Amino acid sequence: MRMYNDASAHTYIAERYGRRAVAAFERCRHPAMRSDYLRMCFVLAEGGLYVDADDVLLGDGWRETLRGAALKVQPLCYDVRAGCMVSATELRRIDLPTDDRIFYVNNNPIAAPAGHPVLRRALSRATDALLGEDPTPEIQSTTGPGNLTASLAAHALEVHEMGTRPDFELLFNWEATAAPRWDLAYRSDARNWRNMGLR
Questions:
Q1: Which residue range(s) make up the domain with 141?
Q2: pTM as predicted
Q3: Structural domain tally of the chain?
Q4: Cα four-point dihedral sign 18, 33, 169, 61
C-alpha cells in the first residue's frame, strides 16, 4: 500500500510528468482538487482501480472492474427538478427524459490500464485549466467528474467517428459493488469542497 501527502504527491508528479504538471498541482487550491489531480496522474501512469477512502466494498464484484483493457467508470444522473440522483436502473432506459437532468460519469471509481487515452485527455485538460487565466477554476469541472465526463465524451465521439470498438465501459451496477459511508468528519464542515466559499 502506498499513501501520499502533498509532498510525496508533488514528488510523484514531478518524477513522472515534469514541471508543467507540478505547476498545475500547485494551483489546486483544495485537498479534493489535489486528490483528483493525483488520481489521474497515478492511474494514467500505472493503471489499476481507484476508489474513494470512504467507500465500503460489498463482496468481490470489484474484481470484474480489473478484467480487460477498458476504462471503467460509473455513470450518474442528477434530476434537477426532483433534487435527487436518478437510480442506476433508470439510466439504462433509452427513453429517459433529458430535460432538467444532468448526465455525467463519476471520478470514483476509475479502473483503467496504464496510458488510457481518456485519462491522458483528462489530465491534459485539467492541467490546461489550472494553468489558465482563471486564478480559481471551479473544482468539479476542472479536476473532478465534469472534467472526466468531457474527456470521455470527446473520446467517445472520436471512437465513433473512426468506427472502432469502444475502449471504455460504464459500471451501471457499481452500487452493488461498493457503498459510500459519509461518516468522515470533513464531509460536514468547511473542509468539504462543496462548502468552499460558503459561510
A1: 6-195
A2: 0.91
A3: 1
A4: positive
Tell me if 1 is assigned to some domain.
no
Q: Digits of tens for pLDDT over the chain (199 positions)?
A: 788 999 999 999 999 999 999 999 999 999 999 999 999 999 999 999 999 988 998 988 888 898 899 999 999 999 998 899 998 888 888 787 788 889 999 999 999 999 999 999 999 999 999 999 998 899 999 999 999 999 999 999 999 999 999 999 999 999 899 988 877 666 667 677 677 654 3
Nearest to 35 by CA among 145, 149, 143: 143
- For 71, phi then psi, to 5°, come to -70, 140
Q: Is residue 40 part of a domain?
A: yes
At which residue does the C-alpha cell 510525496 appear?
8
Residue ranges in 74-178 assigned as alpha helix (H):
117-130, 139-142, 145-162
Q: Does residue 41 fall inside a structural domain?
A: yes
Residue 64 falls within a domain, yes or no?
A: yes
125 contacts: CB under 8 Å, gap ≥ 6: 147, 150, 151
Provide, for the chain, the percentages of residues in helix, strand and coil under a 3-state DSSP scheme, each rounded to the nearest 5.
45, 20, 35
CA distance 96 to 59: 30
